[in-house]
């Protein structure tokens, strides 16, 4: 039990560091709110190495803490919606043995953007915002793929510690 608590603390700190580093990277392609998703490496590692409950815990705590430290209430709202939809879908895909880590991450990246877009449409009460959807699907696919490859390689190297 103490070991799990220590791992959760370390992974939460790592997730916050990834959030901070990502906030420093000038990554803008004309789409508001688009990010690399570096923190998802930590979440995927948690999902595959520790478990679903731990991944949800780290995800929620990271969104709240990063939002208070580096963002605002809207960033927390958007990020939480994207993170919960993404993690829920990734959890379901992980349970089916058909999907590999890279596929789970890629679909998770897409779902994260869809979750944020749904909340944005509800907040601004304008559904024209869905014109961003094709761009966000492509961005989610690319970043999810890159994050999936990084997470898979990391899991291969650290799995023995779990």
TrEMBL record:
This is Gx transporter family protein. Pfam families: Hpre_diP_synt_I (PF07456). The keyword Membrane applies. It comes from the Bacteria. InterPro entries: Hpre_diP_synt_I, Hpre_diP_synth_I. The chain crosses the membrane at residues 76-94, 101-123, 129-151. Keywords: Membrane, Transmembrane, Transmembrane helix. The keyword Transmembrane helix applies.
């Amino acid at each position: 039990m103490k070991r799990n608590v220590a791992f959760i603390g370390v992974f939460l700190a790592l997730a916050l560091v990834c959030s901070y580093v990502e906030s420093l990277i000038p990554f803008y392609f004309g789409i508001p709110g688009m990010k690399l998703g570096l923190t998802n490496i930590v979440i995927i590692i948690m999902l595959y190495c520790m478990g679903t409950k731990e991944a949800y815990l780290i995800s929620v705590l990271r969104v709240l803490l990063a939002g208070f430290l580096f963002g605002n209430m809207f960033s927390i709202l958007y990020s939480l919606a994207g993170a919960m939809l993404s993690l829920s879908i990734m959890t379901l895909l992980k349970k089916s043995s058909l999907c590999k880590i890279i596929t789970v991450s890629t679909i998770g990246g897409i779902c994260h953007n869809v979750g944020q877009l749904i909340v944005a449409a509800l907040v601004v009460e304008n559904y024209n915002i869905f014109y961003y959807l094709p761009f966000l699907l492509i961005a989610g696919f690319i970043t999810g793929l890159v994050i999936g490859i990084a997470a898979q390689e990391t899991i291969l190297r650290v799995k023995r510690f779990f």
